[in-house]
Amino acid sequence: MNKREKEAYLREYGVLKSQGKPFFPYAIAKDSVMAIMVMVVIITMSIVLGAELGPKADPTSTTYTPRPEWYFFFLFELLRVIKPPALVPLATIGVPTICLILLFLLPFYDRGAERRPERRPIATAAGIFTICAIGYLTYLGAAAGPPTEIDIPVPANVRSQGSAAVANFKSGEQVVAQSGCAACHKFGENGNAGPGPSLTRVGARLPAQAIQRTLINPTAPMPSFATLSEQSPKQFEQMVGFLAALK
Amino acid sequence: MTEHKESKSKYTEDRQIPGAFEGETVTRRRAMVLGGQVAGGVAAAAFALPALGFAVGPIFEKQDQPWQIVGNTGEFNPDSYVPRTITLVAGIGDAGKSTVYLRKYNPDLDTEPRDEYNSYIAISTLCMHLGCPVRFTAAAQRFICPCHGGVYDIVGKVNGGPPVRPLDRFYTRLEADRVLIGPRFSVNSELQRFSPRDPGEPLDGVGQYLYPSRPSMRKIQGT
Amino acid sequence: MAKLKTPTLPSNPLTSPKRPGKAYGPSTPLEHGAEAGITAVDWIDERTSLSGGLRWMMFRKVPKGTNWFYTLGSATMFAFLSQAVTGVFLAMYYDPSATRAYESIQHINNDVFLGEFVHGMHKWGSSVMVILIFLHMGRTFFFGAYKYPRELNWVIGVALLVMTMTMSFSGYLLPFDQRSYWATIVGVNINGTGPLVGPYLSEFLRAGPYFGATTLSRFYAIHMLLVPGAIAALMGFHLYLVAKLGTTAPPWVRAKSPDALREQKVSDL
């Protein structure tokens, strides 16, 4: 903004202000109505949702799945999607710091005189993009289940084979989930994308025998499930059956 | 050809300041301003510095890590892990405890040289990405972190996901036939011992200099 | 030097002139009460001159076109006030020690009269405040209200946003349930990933190499003294600047006919 634009703005604003209404009581009335609405929301939430406590803090736990409060989900998801260890400081410190600096300095690099959102296409687009990105990351963060949980709909061809097949599929799902496969593979909405390939449709790519062979003789870093096949062959069978049914 | 700029005299008398003494270089007003600022600064520092030191102090205090018994030699085997609860910070009940996975040294798995502190391998359950609780999954022979997708193999080396170094370990030693567990230490990807670091702090390459160890906890000298 | 003569004092400076239309002063009890109130306010104003500032704050004009979007800032402040008050009363029952914190919150929830209600207001109030502050920021951004001459107020606003997030973060360790504990561990370790200073920073936050006896009270002090104090101070400055610079008009509102207005002003003279 140059000096002329500043003058023009101040003059325009002075006129608008002189045509306005006094803060008290006109703006105060609106503010008070809004304050009542805020309190109604807070009190309703408090009554309806209460203030439940989770289980007491237990540092010895190895089964708890930590998740932050919802308004930090986007930061949480950022940590999940940035995988290479070398980029960890970027995800934890770098990106948030850069975003914060950009936010702080906004009025110093966006110095145009135009204020109407439809005439500031870059700023408006950037703002909408940021909101969408944070919203999307928040959604992903909220949907991220623990790697020991897989929730995949039973495929139609399994369902058509009767309830025994469905039960077998479900117990196979259980075995796969508890074996921690989702730590490296994606199963539909669950699991991590990498280092292993997505297994959402592995049954369509590989026959049951090939899956069994891979489980016993995998390529590193995938672990071998040979011990599982020796110690509890039934569970191993269910595991193979579940994976082969994913089409 | 140089433009000569008339330099200001450092003597107040020469600058025609009323009431100046001969040989005086600082006006009395200026001396008072400086004196006021210094006195105010000293007074503020007198409460700010002790308070700050009080808050920062714990960083430089060496923490005691007493050896504690975790079981008899017969309870552990070389092939799978047994979880044990140890106390990291005394006097705060359950909040000061942590879980450690223990097994016997296994020449087929462990590549580091044997010494008096590793006849039993004790692995911390804090993920080295950001400190979530990892869990050993026997079927997959992996440590799996529930937070951001970290996976470690059976000796604690990183298999996948964002963790920056293998899982931390604890010194162990034998006393008669009891296994004792001692201070924590961190390892780099070659399983060399380093003074303990926090999660998220890499030790390979320049990592160990970018993330210095702290006076509050060091590894045992010479290991 | 010749001295000026001291002016003669008025004969009785304390009697104020009679109010117009009132021949005999207050008569009904109500009027007496009102008079007493006015006298008290006058007494304070004579010694503080606050009425000028109050008038400046309250009777400044807000520009034409001011709509409901402009209530988001005051709504955020109101949510903060609600947090401050409920927080003070929660502090009366809360015990920031690693062994007693969880039990004291349980006690608040189960035994104290209205305990769970006030705890719930504080808990959900934080979410409401975070939403409101983001909406307020969004309004400021899309209306271009951060531009000249309000740049500094934007910077203060971002600082307030950061501090609000700090409050939410330091607050949710306090109930000391599983979520509190692990989220704090992760949050502190995030600070530790900063090169060189990070490790010392995380150790400072924990007051030691591990989550220890004083970690909770450290977070408690940050949550209820350090950051709220800073928020209140910056909020005051934020408000002062709002009053001084005026709230913006919506960007599409244009002054109707400045020329006509100017002419009118000239003719008034």
Distance between the termini of chain C: 43 Å
CATH class of the domain at 70-245 in chain C: Mainly Alpha
> What name is given to the CATH topology of the largest domain in chain A?
Cytochrome Bc1 Complex, Chain D, domain 2
Sequence stretches where pLDDT stays below 50 over 5 or more residues of chain C: none
Q: What is the radius of gyration of chain A computed over CA atoms, rounded to a whole number of angstroms?
A: 28 Å
**CATH fold title of the domain at 70-245 in chain C:** Cytochrome Bc1 Complex, Chain C
Strand content of chain C: under 5%
Q: What proportion of the residues of chain A is helical, as a percent range?
A: 55-70%
Please state the average pLDDT score of chain A: 88
Shape category of chain C? extended
Oligomeric status? heterotrimer
| H and E order of chain C | HHEHHHHHHHH
Fraction in helix of chain C: 55-70%
Net shape of chain A: elongated
The total strand number of chain C stands at 1
* Portion in beta strands of chain A: under 5%
Overall domain count of chain A:
3
Report on the architecture of this protein.
The complex is a heterotrimer of chains A (247), B (223) and C (269). With 247 residues, chain A is mainly alpha-helical. Chain A folds into 3 domains: 1-50, no CATH class; 67-144, plastocyanin oxidoreductase (Helix Hairpins), CATH 1.10.287.980; 156-245, Cytochrome c-like domain (Cytochrome Bc1 Complex, Chain D, domain 2, Orthogonal Bundle), CATH 1.10.760.10. Chain A contains 12 helices and 3 strands, in the order H-E-H-H-H-H-H-H-H-E-E-H-H-H-H. Chain A has a two-stranded antiparallel ribbon. The mean pLDDT of chain B is 89. Chain B has helices at residues 28-56, 207-210; strands at 68-72, 82-87, 97-104, 120-124, 135-137, 142-144, 151-152, 158-160, 169-175, 178-187, 193-194. Chain B contains 2 helices and 11 strands, in the order H-E-E-E-E-E-E-E-E-E-E-E-H. Chain C is an all-alpha fold. Helix content of chain C is 65%, strand content 1%. Chain C is extended and about 75 Å long. Chain C starts with 28 loop residues before the first helix and ends with a helix. The mean pLDDT of chain C is 89. The interface between A and C is large, with 76 and 87 residues.
